[in-house]
Amino acid sequence: MAAGVSRKISAASARAHTRRPKQGTPFQLPSGMFKKILVVFFMGFMAWAYQAIQPPPPKICGSADGPPVTAPRIKLSDGRHLAYKEHGVPKDKAKYKIVYVHGFDSCRHDAVIATSLSPDIIEDLGVYIVSFDRPGYGESDPNPKRTLKSMALDVEELADQLGLGSKFYVVGFSMGGQYLWTCLKYIPHRLAGATLIAPVVNYWWPGIPANLSKEAHDQQFPSDRWSNRVAHYIPWLTYWWNTQKWFPACSVIAHSPAILSRQDLELLPRLASRKQYEIGANYLHMRIEWPQREGWAGGGDFVLLEARDAVRHAHGASAWVKCNHFDASCASCDSQICLSSKLIFARCETQI
Hints:
This protein is 38% helix and 14% strand.
C-alpha cells in the first residue's frame, strides 16, 4: 500500500477517541447505614420530645434545694403539707367560718373575699376566713396522686386540724371552683354553705346541654379553644402546650388584656402591685339533701362564658341551686368580688 494513501476512520471510532474518561462513581453508604441513621435521628427526636412534655421536678418548700417555709402549715395524713393564711375575726368568736379556695395563678394571699370586704363588715358579721395554697402552689407540697376525692379530703382535713367545727362554709373562686364541686360531691355533710364565684366549668360535662357548651366554647378566643382541646383530648401534652412559643398561648396564661371587660381595665392599675386538670366528673345531677345554695355569674365575663350560662342552667336542672346574675365584670375584676362578697355575707343568715 502506498505511503501517501490515507485511512478512513469511522464516526464511532472518532467518538471513542475523543470521549472523556468516565468520572469516579459517587460515594455510597454501606448497605443499611441510611436506615440506621434515620433510626438514631428518630430516637433522638423522641427523647427530646419526651423531655419537652415533662414538667421540671418540683422544689419542695423546706427541702435542701427548695425555698424556705414562711407560712403556717398543717401536715396531712399522707405526709404532705398545706400552707394557709387566716383572715377576719378569731375562730372562737366567728359566726361564719369559711374555707376560701383560690383560682389559677394565685395563692393563699389572694383571698379576694377577705381583702375586698371592709374590716367593719367582717367584724360586724363575725367572719373568719382561712385561705390555703392549693397543692403545688405557694408553699403547699404538690400531690402527684391527686384525685377528685383527694381535693375534698384536703379541705376537710384542713378544717378539722384548724378546729372549724362539724360544719363550715366553702367559697371557690374561678379555678378554685373545682374544689367546691368536689366538696359538694364527697363531703356535703360537712358544708354549712357553698358559693361559686365566676367558676371554671368543663365544656365536656354531659350534664350541660351540648348546644350550650358549643355556643360558649365557640365564643372563646381561638388560642383558648385549642388549649381546651389539648387539655381534654391529649392531657399529657398540656405542659408543653402551656410553655411552648410556636403557637398562641392560652389568653389567661399570657395575661392578655383582650379578655378584660371595661370595668376590669379600669381596675388594672390597682392590680399591678399584686405579688405575683381537667375535671372529668359531672356534678349537675347530684342529689344533695341540704338547703338552697347560690351561684354567681357576671354579665361581662369574657373568660368564663359557659359558667355564666351554666349557672342559669344549673338553676333550672337542680332545685338546690339559686342563680344570681348581675351586670358586672369578669373573674379578674375585684369590684365584682367585692359586690359578691357583700351580698353573700348579707344573705348568709337567710339562705343557710
